[in-house]
Design goal:
Blueprint: H1 4-35, E1 93-98, E2 103-108, E3 113-118, E4 135-141, E5 146-153, E6 156-163, E7 168-172, E8 183-187, E9 190-194, E10 209-213
Parallel strand pairs: 7-8
Antiparallel strand pairs: 1-2, 2-3, 4-5, 5-6, 8-9, 9-10
């Protein structure tokens, strides 16, 4: 999908890259012009000397006026600095296009073409088709006291097992009893729970049983009480 924001960012970056050398050159020229000293005017000439007064005239003749001194020469103008080099015209964007490979290409006003690289990603690989459920089964497994969930899809079977939960009273255990997982049996005064299907005797060293309530100790013998039989009849007139 075409992203105008990324497109604008890519064009801006390309233009800045293209005009960077021109901006650098213009800056160098401006620095050269600024370094040229301005022309100075010539200094004014020294003032001329006053003229010499004429000698006093002889009888009846007026003395002649002395000559005025000439003015000094004007100073020459300083040399004019050289004109700076004219900067090159700036570059503009003449056109832009995305090629078959998804790369952005821009054309500048001087005819130069810049390839800015891919801006359109390639299509992803096709995903796998989903599986539909062909079969669904629930089964109770008495040996392990579990619920088995079986699902069949596209010829494959997936089985999950979960504890069935709950404890079921089963009575007093005797030799030959076949216990099932989750059953509670009383043996030798203790309450035992079968962890799996088993025919072994309930005891603490067995991996098939777990004790739920241990047999209590016998209480101490109490004091001897009275005889519970009815009292003997009273004899009268003996």
């Amino acid at each position: 999908m075409f992203d105008p924001e990324k497109f604008g960012e890519a064009m801006g970056a390309a233009i800045r890259e293209a005009v960077a050398p021109l901006q650098k050159r213009i800056g160098e020229l401006e620095a050269m012009v600024a370094a040229i000293p301005a022309g100075k005017g010539g200094e004014p000439g020294a003032p001329g000397r006053d003229g010499i007064d004429g000698a006093p005239g002889q009888k009846g003749l007026d003395g002649k006026d002395g000559l005025n001194g000439s003015n000094g020469l004007d100073g020459k103008d300083g040399l004019r600095g050289a004109d700076g080099v004219k900067g090159a015209d700036g570059l503009g964007l003449a056109g832009a296009m995305i090629d078959r490979d998804g790369a952005l290409q821009i054309t500048l006003t001087n005819g130069e073409v810049k390839n800015l690289g891919p801006v359109v990603g390639k299509n992803g690989a096709d995903g796998k088709d989903g599986l539909s459920l062909d079969g669904f089964e629930l089964e109770y497994l008495p040996d392990s006291h579990e619920i088995a969930l079986k699902a069949t899809a596209a010829g494959r079977v997936k089985e999950l097992r979960y504890p069935a939960g709950g404890i079921r009273p089963a009575g007093y255990w005797r030799e030959g009893t076949k216990a099932v997982a989750g059953e509670a049996w009383v043996h030798d005064g203790s309450l035992w729970i079968a962890k799996t299907a088993t025919g072994s005797r309930p005891e603490s060293r067995s991996e098939d049983w777990i004790i739920a309530a241990r047999k209590g100790r016998d209480g101490e013998r109490g004091a001897k009480g009275m005889d519970g039989s009815p009292p003997a009849p009273i004899k009268l007139g003996a």
